[in-house]
Amino acid sequence: MGIGHVDTSIGSSIQISAMLQKCWQNRAMATRARRAQRRNQVLSREQIIATAIELLDSGGESALTVRALTERLATGTGAIYYQVGNRDELLDAATETVIGTVLDTEPAGARTTARDEIRAVALGLFDAIAAHQWLATRLALQITRNPCGPVTVGIFERFGRQVGALGVPRAAWFDATSTLVHYILGAVGQNARVDGDTSGVDPRVDRGEFLAAVSAAWQELDPDDYPFMHVIAGQMREHDDREQFLTGIAAVLTGITNMR
Which residues have CB under 8 Å from 67's CB, separation 6+? Predict the structure, then answer.
């Protein structure tokens, strides 16, 4: 083995060693930078809740975990628990945020009536549940399990004031408002895909195709046994969900304004 060859080998080893050392230094610097970013980044409650809503919208309730949230925000669990709380509290906060935005809805136009207010907020709930498929389940839980919480109280207060403005007698406010709220929540929930639904209906199925298939099935029923179903089969196939929803609100309002 010649001296020149030995010198070349030694030089290559030194270069490789230097490259490895530089690589480790770069990795260490990157790690320190990420840690510094985590320490320096002050996450607000609003940022955490907004990110939680994004996770819920993309994958439903199963997608929202504290671990997934910390990874998305590049933070530790301590920040999540300090600003919001555990997973259940995150779900409640996400629901309160979406519903709170809806309840702040104001109808367009300078001069509005109590009916306009009710229609605007009701359509806001309809659209919110269509946009956030996880919301229907959480909203139902809030109403039934947390009657003193901000969601339940906010919904009843928002609609109840307008029921009073319609001239419904004070003694009938609770019954009238409960009837209106139950219709609205029931109708909007019916048009939502519920998390954990095991009905076998593919949520990706085309609405028109689904209604056409149901209409055809109704038309195949014995007309002597189901004369009503035969009449409405075509109407059901062509109906518009939003218009039907508003028709229902109009019917409820007509009824409660006649309460004495």
Answer: 77
The pTM (predicted TM-score) of the whole model is 0.76
Which CATH superfamily is 95-256 part of? Tetracycline Repressor, domain 2 (1.10.357.10)
What is the identity of the amino acid at 26? N
Closest CA to 98 of 53, 59, 66: 53
Query: Along the 260 residues of the chain, how does pLDDT read in single tens digits?
Result: 444 444 445 555 556 555 556 555 555 555 444 444 444 456 899 999 999 999 999 999 999 999 999 999 999 899 999 999 999 999 999 999 999 999 998 887 767 899 999 999 999 999 999 999 999 999 999 999 999 999 999 999 999 999 999 999 999 999 999 999 999 999 988 776 554 554 455 556 788 898 999 999 999 999 999 999 999 999 999 989 999 999 999 999 999 999 87
Longest dimension (CA), the chain: 113
Paired tokens of 151: 């969601």
The domain spans of the chain are 95-256
Dihedral, 249, 110, 104, 158 alpha carbons, nearest 10: -50
Q: How far apart are the first and last CA of the chain?
A: 112
* Number of residues in the chain: 260
